[in-house]
Amino acid sequence: MSRPVEIPAGFRELTESSGFAGANGPWYEKVEGGRVIRGFRPGPQHANKLGIVHGGMLAAFLDSAMGTAVFHALDRHAVTMRLSLDYLGPGRLGDWLQAEGEVVGQDGQVAQVRGRLYGLRHEVLTGIGSFALLSRHRR
To answer: How far apart are CA 6 and CA 127, in angstroms?
Structure first.
């Protein structure tokens, strides 16, 4: 029997998700102290053959959180230009994982973002990325 999914207080499900996020969710989000935190509880569909969360899934989730940080901080949509990652520990199935990004610089065309993905017990992934800022008219 599987345990019920317990979502930490303050998180709301991203019901408007589509595409990759919609297919790999549910994903959750909360705004706390001026920062956006994304969370999810990985299931068997996120596993690699070793029974831990696939590194590509972890990378995509952190990338999404970092892009959300750009939108929240600069009110601009952005797309990833470059993403450099360091895997620090495994993502375990059933654990609550959360990710957040912080805009550390921008020049009007490109934002530099630092991100981290972590569980309750340990850091999982850190990254730094460059995000191309899209036109304010593009939605």
So the answer is: 27
Q: What is the mean pLDDT of each run of 10 residues along the chain (139 residues)?
A: 69 81 84 90 92 95 96 95 97 94 96 96 96 82
Distance of CA 48 to the CA centre of its chain: 19
Spell out a b/e string for 16-55, using b for 16 or more CB atoms within 10 Å of the CB, else e: ebeeebeebeebbbbeeeeebbbbbbbeeebbeeeebbbe
What is the spatial distance between Cα 124 and Cα 138, in angstroms, rounded to a whole number? 33
- d(C-alpha 63, C-alpha 127), whole Å: 9
Answering whether pTM is above 0.85, one says yes
Distance, CA of 131 to CA of 109 (rounded, Å): 8
Structure tokens at 61: 């989730």
Structural domains of the chain ordered from first start: 12-133 (3.10.129.10)
